[in-house]
Amino acid sequence: MHINISVSRSPIAKAQTDTAMDEAIILYPSPNVGHLVSMIEFAKLIHARRASLYIHIVIISTPHGGRITASYIANVTASIPLLHFHYLPTISLPSKTTPTLHQTLTCEEMIRLSNPHVHQTLLSISKTQTINALIMDFFCFASLPVTIQLNIPGYFFFTSGAGILAIFLRLPTLHQNSTKSFKDLNTFLHVPGLPPLLSSDLPLPLIDRYDKSHGYFLDMATCFQKSAGIIVNTFELLEPRAFKAISDGLCIPSSTAPPVHCIGPLVATKCTSDGAKDQCLTWLDSQPSQSVIFLCFGSLGLFSTEQLREIASGLERSGQRFLWWCEIHLLITKA
Question: SUPFAM superfamilies, per this entry (predicted)?
C-alpha cells in the first residue's frame, strides 16, 4: 500500500514560503463512532509511515457524543504526540428539523452548518504548518466546497468496501437512465465490477428517487467525482473486480474517475476485545481456505427480528461456515 500524501502545497501555505514550516494533513470524520474510530486508525497508519507528519483530526461535537470513544482517544493522543484533536463548537439544528428525519440527513445538516468552523480551523493551522490535504469522511461531502475555496486537495475516506463504493459512483448514471424509482423498476441493475443487482434490493435510502435521502446520496456521488481521490477501507485482493472497475473509470462513464487507494482492513486494537479477536483468528486459521462467509454491518447495522431471521435462514441454507462480527464486540461463529 502506498499513498502519496506529499501533494502540492495550497495557496494558504505558499503565502509563507519564506519560512520553512512543518507538513500536516487534516482528517475530518463524521460523528458516528464506527467512522470516527476508523478515521483515527487511518491516522495511526499514516503516522507509522510518516512519523514527522503532523496529523490533525477535526471532530464535530454532538450532544450525545464522546462517551464511547473518550478513553480510546486519550490512549491514542498519549501514544502519538504529533496527533492533535480539534473539537468544533456544538451545532444546534434549526427548530424546523423534525425528529423523524433520516439520521444521515441530520448528520449532513450538522456538517453543513459546521463548515464555517472547519474553514476557520484550517486557516488557523495553516499559519504555522503546511496543509497537504484534507481527508474527509464520505458523509462529510458537504465540506468539499471548503477545500475548493482554500485550494486544499480534498480526499474522501470511504469506511466501507469497494463494492458499495461502485454502487455510489454509478448512482448518477442509474438515476439518469430512468424516470422511475428503483423500488418500482423490478429489474436487475448492472454496476461494473458487481453481479447483477435487483433494483429493489439497493440500500433503502436509494430506492425512492423522490425521498430526500436519495437526493442526499446522489449529491454525495457527484462530490466523489470532484475529489482529489478516494481512500477505501478494503484491500484489492478482497474485491478485485470492483476495485478494477472503479480504477478503470467504468463506474463513471461521463467523467474522469478520481484515483482510488485501498488501505484496509483497519482494526481498532484498543477498541475491541483482544480475547474475542484472538478467538476469531484462531478459529479462522483452522478452517479450509475460502470456506468462511464474513458478516459485519457496522455500528449502525440494526435489524428487525424478521430481518435477523432471514439472515440466519440464508446462512443455514448456504451450508457454509460463517463469522459474524458485531460492533458491540460479540463474536458468532458456526463450526
Answer: UDP-Glycosyltransferase/glycogen phosphorylase (SSF53756)
